[in-house]
Design a protein that fits this description.
The protein is an alpha/beta fold. It has a single domain, classed as Rossmann fold (3-Layer(aba) Sandwich). The protein has helices spanning about 10-35, 50-60, 75-80, 85-90, 125-140, 155-170, 190, 195-200, 215-235, 260-265, 270-280, 285-310, 330-340; strands at about 65-70, 115-120, 145-150, 175-180, 180-185, 185, 210, 235-240. The strands form two sheets. A six-stranded parallel beta sheet has the order 2-1-3-4-8-7, sandwiched between helices. Strands 5-6 form a two-stranded antiparallel ribbon. Strand 7, helix 9 (about 215-235) and strand 8 form a beta-alpha-beta unit. Helix 1 packs antiparallel against helix 11, helix 1 (about 10-35) packs across helix 12 (about 285-310) and helix 2 runs parallel beside helix 3 (about 75-80). It is globular and about 60 Å long. The structure holds thiamine diphosphate (TPP). The site of thiamine diphosphate (TPP) has 15 residues, from strand 5.
Length: about 350
């Protein structure tokens, strides 16, 4: 049982956080079913078990902030305000999806919500986060760029380059490491000589600390503290959120590298069940109020499924859109060369 404390947070915030986590859980449980029904195809990485991280962090942000994350992105998009309909339509490959049906599960994107993906290359979005923060800094725009990534990304060169430049240029970035202990089938201990992740980030003179990622209240408090530091001009902050995914890495993963016992032990720390019990025990919420949250989340998800199902497929003549550059007058020579070679225009 997690030892929750309000400690500066209003009870309503705790209730909102529970509702946020439930929305993500319900949406993703449904995604797993839709994958089995071949409605969602391609890759699908579920965030089930890790919901407290996205919920707690997003709760502390404003619409002005920028958010980037990995391919395990459905919950982040949903809690950032991207409509469930456009997320589901994207996963169904419909042109009504938030990336026009072109990206699928791993590439959700919605600039209107300052949600810059959904990035499939491990560590590849850290430099993008630094670039967004650099732009904000140069334009004197008060905003934080929040970049979620797995601990697997900390073995990539981009991690080190990004933290170095963010610190050197005093950029407003919050680096959120979602440490679920495994990068696909590779455990942290078997791949890294230094498993104290905050220590690694501290090597770049970045304030860094670890937080219990199964305790959504701790996550929200830590994020508030970090964004205050960043907006106060303190430069980047790194937080390691210690969490666990209850499902396999993706729908293709037979999950043979960890024991059933280990998974069961972590499930006892389920961020939703634990916060539910705590709120009820402390009479901050009633069971029927919480049942209603589940009901609303189911309705939201089913509305999204119906809308996605009814969404248009991309027209065949758009097959090469965004793939081959449109040819303008300046490229006439190249155009005639391409056409005479039988290329696509
Ligand atoms: C540069 C790169 N190398 C390898 C892969 C293949 N790959 C996809 S997910 C993954 C594991 C990443 O683990 P982690 O960063 O801890 O995030 P998690 O999946 O646990 O959320 C790998 C190696 C990739 N997408 N990009």
């Amino acid at each position: 049982m997690t030892d929750f404390r309000l400690d500066g947070l209003a009870p309503e915030v705790a209730i909102d956080l529970l509702s946020d986590m439930i929305r993500v859980r319900v949406f993703e449980e449904r995604c797993a079913e839709l994958y089995a029904d071949a409605k969602i195809r391609g890759f699908l990485h579920l965030y089930i078990g890790e919901e407290a991280v996205a919920a707690g962090v997003m709760n502390a942000l404003t619409p002005d902030d920028n958010v980037l994350c990995t391919y395990r992105d459905h919950g982040h998009a949903l809690l950032r305000g991207v409509p469930a309909e456009s997320i589901m339509a994207e996963m169904f490959g419909r042109s009504s999806g938030c990336s026009g049906g072109r990206g699928g599960s791993m590439h959700l994107f919605d600039a209107d919500h300052r949600f810059y993906g959904g990035n499939a290359i491990v560590g590849g979005h850290l430099p993008l986060a630094v670039g967004l923060a650099l732009a904000d800094s140069m334009q004197q725009r008060a905003a934080v760029t929040v970049c979620f990534f797995g601990e697997g990304a900390m073995a990539e060169g981009e991690f080190h380059e990004s933290l170095n430049l963010a610190a050197l240029w005093n950029l407003p970035v919050l680096f959120c490491c979602e440490n679920n202990r495994y990068a696909m089938g590779t455990s942290l201990e078997s791949s890294e000589s230094q498993v104290d992740l905050a220590l690694k980030a501290a090597a770049y003179s970045i304030p860094s600390w670890a937080v219990d990622g199964m305790d959504v209240l701790d996550v929200a408090r830590a994020t508030r503290r970090a964004t205050q530091m960043i907006l106060g001009g303190g430069g980047p902050v790194f937080i390691e959120f210690q969490t666990y995914r209850f499902r396999a890495h993706s729908m293709f993963d037979p999950d043979l590298y960890r024991s059933a016992d280990e998974i069961d032990r972590w499930k006892l720390r389920d961020p939703i069940t634990n916060l539910t019990d705590w709120l009820v025990t402390h009479e901050l919420a009633g069971r029927s109020q919480i049942d209603e949250m589940w009901e609303q989340a189911r309705s939201e998800t089913e509305r999204a499924v119906s809308a996605a199902d009814a969404g248009p497929l991309e027209p065949l003549d758009g097959l090469f859109d965004h793939v081959v550059a449109a040819l303008g007058p300046a490229s006439t020579a190249a155009s005639s060369a391409t056409s005479s070679a039988g290329g696509v225009s």
